């Protein structure tokens, strides 16, 4: 045998079958171990993966934080910002990071106390008590300027070493937040509303358009990449939309100024401790599309930047005596918008609706005459008028605000027609205005209305309305018969200023024919522009305009407390502005004078009409009184004094003539009706 063959046989003996089996077993054991390890890792990951991941990432100072959205602005019709959100910052302390190394504690505390109004011992206490907390709010809602000193100290670089001067300031960061602010304070407060924590609108536009104004929070995520390095990714926040309103801030300011002036003028003049009225409210609207230009009430006026301040309406002693529930109830009374939430009896401003429904239904032509002897017996009751007018036409019935003529007209048309047109005019129903808290009012149903109810309803007593109902219905009377849904928003813009949607005027129905509208406008024109009209005090010189006065006796018909009002429009041929002034219990000895509301309306119109580019169509004539005043300048002081006394007497007579109580002469209370009528429930 060759030597090479012998060597091969020896090698084969060394790697025999027994060795192969051992190797196979070893391989199988190793594979089983690997499989077991994989199963175990899979199990750990499934059961506790999040726990261990957080532990690892926390050691790498991994963090994830919310990025707040910016709530959208509210602007007036010309873009003036009425409500906005300003970025502010919360100072956040990460106790775990600061406590991770002794050398971080003192430099961080020193930096915080030197830059902010923080106490060193308080900070040390927080680090000890919440040593593992990653999120402790130290300060809230600081401005950008207020945090700059700390940021500069934290990031300051040494020019020589090119390293941070304060490398041991750790665990402090700034959380973004937005603060809702109102640049004009109390302007349009009941219209705008305000926000509470969490960007929740409360009352007004802030509440109604809350979903449009709010956006969606973003998120900043931290994660470890393949090289175990911390990286970040950001999902940007979606900011809220801007609501552009129909409100004109300048007109709103003028309205509020005149309301305040009235209350100041008559504050304490009769009731010593009271303002000029229980409440004075004004609405300015465009009758051709339902847009609200201004809306304000004296009892709903507060600082939007500090809405919980009761000191404007209550003394310190009164506030201290209130429990939480009482405070909240009082605040809600201030926050509400009484122009849409409160109901009242409208008085003679409702008379145009009675006349319009009778003419439009064909029950009268407008050429009728009626005899007023100072009262009319209906259902066994003598229901009075403000004067004995004698024979009056339909036009004169409105001009002189004759209750007797209006009762005759209502009785002629009957309760079926009267209640039908109340529904057509939306009286007693919500208008659907884009504001929260709207009330509906209280009216008689056809089934429950008796003859006496019909008679008193004819001149605006014994049913309740809201101001916005009256403005919307009256607008249809003077614009050709078109009833528009009232609204305070004109369009919605996104955060970049692009139009998301436009709030188009919504024509809901036609209440009366154009011919009826034209006839009513002529009557209303005479009411204001004729010297015999009750609304002559409201006329702005040089303007042709129309309107109707109102004086409603309040419950319990004590002939003491009244709601006085004026509802008018300008100009006569093509009405562009409707104004409604309602004064609840003016602080005067004799409340039943609509002249108080007329004066407020006139003062407002004199300012806003030129601003709105509505100009006089008539030359302002030099009055006899002006001529007389010029002549008096050259007379002796004695004769001047005498003339002034005579003028004051004449003025007082004019006041009594033009503004006597149109509806004051109700001879009964609601509970005093006869048996048939007293059972009627207002519906």
TrEMBL record:
Keywords, in A-Z order: Membrane
GO biological process, one term: cell wall organization
First-listed, main subcellular location of the protein, grouped into a coarse class: membrane
InterPro entries on file: Beta-lactam/transpept, Beta-lactam/transpept-like, PBP_dimer, PBP_dimer_sf, PCN-bd_Tpept
Stretches for region Disordered: 623-683
Penicillin-binding protein dimerisation domain segment(s): 68-228
GO CC list: plasma membrane
Biased composition (Acidic residues): 673-683
Signal peptide: none
Keyword Membrane part of the UniProt annotation: yes
Stretches assigned to the Penicillin-binding protein transpeptidase domain: 281-606
SUPFAM superfamilies: beta-lactamase/transpeptidase-like (SSF56601), Penicillin binding protein dimerisation domain (SSF56519)
Keyword Membrane annotated: yes
Single GO term (MF): penicillin binding
Superkingdom per UniProt: Bacteria
Feature: compositional bias, Low complexity: 625-662
Cell compartment(s), UniProt: Membrane
Assigned protein family: Belongs to the transpeptidase family.
The name this protein goes by in its record: Penicillin-binding protein 2
Taxonomic lineage: Bacteria, Bacillati, Bacillota, Clostridia, Lachnospirales
């Amino acid at each position: 045998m060759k030597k090479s063959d012998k060597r091969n046989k020896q090698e084969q003996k060394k790697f025999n079958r027994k060795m192969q089996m051992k190797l196979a077993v070893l391989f199988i054991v190793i594979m089983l171990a690997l499989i077991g390890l994989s199963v175990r890792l899979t199990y750990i990951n499934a059961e506790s993966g999040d726990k261990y991941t957080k532990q690892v990432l926390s050691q790498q100072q991994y963090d994830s934080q919310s990025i707040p959205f910016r709530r959208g602005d509210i602007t007036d019709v010309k873009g003036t910002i009425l409500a906005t959100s300003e970025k502010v910052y919360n100072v956040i302390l990460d106790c775990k990071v600061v406590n991770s190394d002794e050398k971080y504690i003192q430099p961080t505390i020193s930096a915080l106390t030197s830059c902010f109004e923080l106490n060193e011992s308080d900070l040390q206490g927080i680090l000890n008590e919440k040593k593992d907390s990653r999120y402790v709010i130290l300060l809230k809602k600081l401005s950008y300027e207020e945090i700059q000193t700390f940021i500069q100290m934290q990031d300051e670089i040494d020019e020589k070493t090119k390293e941070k001067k304060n490398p041991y300031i750790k665990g402090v960061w700034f959380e973004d937040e937005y603060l809702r602010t109102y640049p004009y304070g109390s302007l349009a407060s009941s219209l705008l509303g305000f926000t509470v924590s969490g960007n929740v609108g409360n009352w007004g536009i802030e509440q109604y358009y809350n979903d449009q104004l709010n956006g969606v929070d973003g998120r900043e995520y931290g994660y470890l990449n393949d090289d175990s390095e911390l990286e970040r990714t950001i999902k940007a926040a979606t900011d809220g939309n801007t609501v552009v309103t129909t409100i004109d801030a300048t007109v709103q300011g003028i309205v509020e100024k005149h309301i305040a002036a009235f209350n100041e003028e008559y504050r304490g003049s009769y009731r010593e401790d009271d303002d000029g009225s229980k409440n004075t409210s004004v609405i300015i609207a465009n009758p051709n599309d339902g847009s609200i230009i201004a809306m304000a009430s004296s009892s709903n006026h507060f600082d939007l930047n500090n809405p919980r301040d009761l000191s404007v309406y209550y003394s310190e002693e009164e506030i201290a005596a209130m429990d939480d529930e009482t405070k909240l109830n009082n605040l809600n009374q201030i926050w509400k918008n009484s122009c849409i939430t409160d109901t009242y009896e409208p008085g003679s401003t409702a008379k145009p609706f009675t006349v319009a429904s009778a003419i439009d239904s064909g029950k009268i032509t407008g050429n009728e005459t009626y005899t007023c002897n100072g009262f009319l017996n209906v259902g066994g009751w003598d229901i009075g008028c403000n004067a004995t007018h004698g024979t009056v036409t339909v036009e004169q019935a409105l001009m002189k605000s004759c209750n007797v003529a209006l009762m005759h007209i209502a009785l002629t048309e009957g309760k079926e027609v009267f209640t039908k047109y109340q529904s057509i005019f939306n009286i007693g129903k919500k208008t659907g205005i884009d504001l929260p808290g709207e009330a509906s009012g209280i009216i008689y149903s056809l089934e429950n209305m008796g003859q006496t109810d019909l008679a008193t309803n004819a001149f605006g007593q014994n049913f309740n309305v809201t101001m916005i109902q009256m403005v919307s219905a009256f607008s249809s009377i003077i614009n050709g018969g078109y009833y528009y849904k009232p609204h305070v928003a004109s369009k919605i813009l996104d955060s970049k200023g692009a139009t998301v949607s436009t709030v188009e005027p919504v024509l809901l129905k036609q209440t009366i024919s154009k011919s009826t509208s034209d006839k009513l406008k002529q009557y209303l024109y005479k009411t204001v522009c004729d010297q015999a009209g009750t609304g002559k005090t409201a006329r702005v010189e040089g303007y042709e305009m129309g309107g109707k006065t109102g004086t409603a006796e309040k419950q319990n018909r004590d002939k003491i407390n009244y709601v006085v009002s004026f509802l008018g429009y300008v100009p006569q041929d093509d009405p562009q502005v409707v104004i409604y002034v309602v004064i609840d219990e003016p602080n005067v000895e004799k409340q039943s004078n609509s002249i108080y509301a007329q004066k407020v309306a006139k003062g407002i119109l004199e300012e806003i009409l030129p601003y709105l580019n509505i100009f006089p169509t008539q030359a302002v004539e030099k009055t006899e009184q002006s001529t007389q005043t010029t002549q008096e300048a050259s007379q002796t002081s004695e004769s001047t004094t005498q003339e002034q006394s005579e003028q004051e007497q004449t003025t007082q007579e004019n006041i009594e003539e033009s503004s006597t109580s149109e509806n004051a002469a109700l001879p009964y209370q609601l509970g005093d009706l006869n048996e048939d009528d007293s059972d009627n429930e207002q519906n």
